[in-house]
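Escalation from tier 1.

The customer reports that the assembly of four entities below gives different structure tokens on two consecutive runs. Tier 1 could not reproduce it. I'm attaching the input and our single run for tier 2 to review.
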Amino acid sequence: MARRARKKNGDKHRRIIEAAVKVFAKHGFYNSKVSEIARAANVADGTIYLYFQNKDDILIRLFEEEMAAILERVQREVDAESDPAAKLRRFARAHLSLVEENQELAEIIQVEIRQSSKFMKEYKNVPFQQYLNLISGIVKEGQAKGVFRADVEPGVFKRAFFGALDEMSRYWVLSSARKYSVERAAQEIADFFLRGVLARPEGESGPDSAQGQD
Amino acid sequence: MARRARKKNGDKHRRIIEAAVKVFAKHGFYNSKVSEIARAANVADGTIYLYFQNKDDILIRLFEEEMAAILERVQREVDAESDPAAKLRRFARAHLSLVEENQELAEIIQVEIRQSSKFMKEYKNVPFQQYLNLISGIVKEGQAKGVFRADVEPGVFKRAFFGALDEMSRYWVLSSARKYSVERAAQEIADFFLRGVLARPEGESGPDSAQGQD
DNA sequence: GTTACTTGAATGAATCGTCATTCATCATCG
DNA sequence: CGATGATGAATGACGATTCATTCAAGTAAC
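Tier 1 run:
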């Protein structure tokens, strides 16, 4: 029964994290009171400090735990496809679906984490790097298979692609108006990129003639 | 000499804004002290309250003033091109150049403004909307001219395109490593999109597909 | 041109509220 | 009984904002 302690720990730890998600999403990190998180989690103020070092720590841990789950899920979805182009579409769909399903969390990751990961210069934000690298991984694979153009810089692509999805999500999260469906948007965004990344969009002749002058 | 007063006003207002840019960029809005801005601007703490309502107001006004200048400049650059595709490339280059030239400001706009524009639910952030609409404007123009595919949703495109540039900027601003040149990245990002947006990448067949509904 | 008075910009020390965090105390369980 | 987890009132720091006061420049009167 000694392990019960751990289990109980896990329980309160969880409850606090979940409460924090709600509270941070509602007021933003800096305007959230620890006591409000405590109230929402149904624990005493002091209890929070048995599970977390301080307020910052709540944010970091919440981010890392949730991010790990997200990474795993998206990874799995992407792995389910074999064609690189399909992987990219799948990534877009998975990303936007996750945002739609976890709006509060998405809001925190988009707004608060960036805020503080800049402020906390030390924090390297590994999970986010990994997430981005899922994308560049797909690109490299596509290039290796000859399906994607070789002159695409994976390091630029991953940011551009992620950025596009992310900005679209922001729209979802911050506005209430849903003009476009997730499916539709994911599809369209992936398309913008894919048609530019595919080695030959349609029946094409040579890649040399591609660009005109500027 | 009575007008000197106004001039002097303008002067201090400016100095405070400029100081705030530095301070906010360095510590983030919430970790910045009004007294530090005052020190940086070489005015007394109280003086700030003669020019701004409160700390939030400093952020909002700084954003709006700087944004107006940015909008005007990018607008002008885009107008200098006539071909929609060229406009898009130009937009990308202008955007990234601005970021490179005003890193502190860019950092604030990316991180702090978003933070607080969520927190201040009322704040509609018109300047940002306008900025985005520069992009959708280009798309619509391109579609009208038949240069861009008609089935592209300008409202999705503007976010995707902006998001891509923005994420790339974040990399510049937050990391110190500059692996890719601005020029190169702008070019590449615009290309990802353009090759997907151009009505006919190469010699294609049917002209019927050109016009469509929106 | 100098003296006396008015105005309002500028100052910065003092105030006042607000939390994050602590810790003395309590409850529970084995 | 300890011991370990939980509590929540009390503490202390901090920092935005205020406001009584100073000061410089303008105006008028002589």
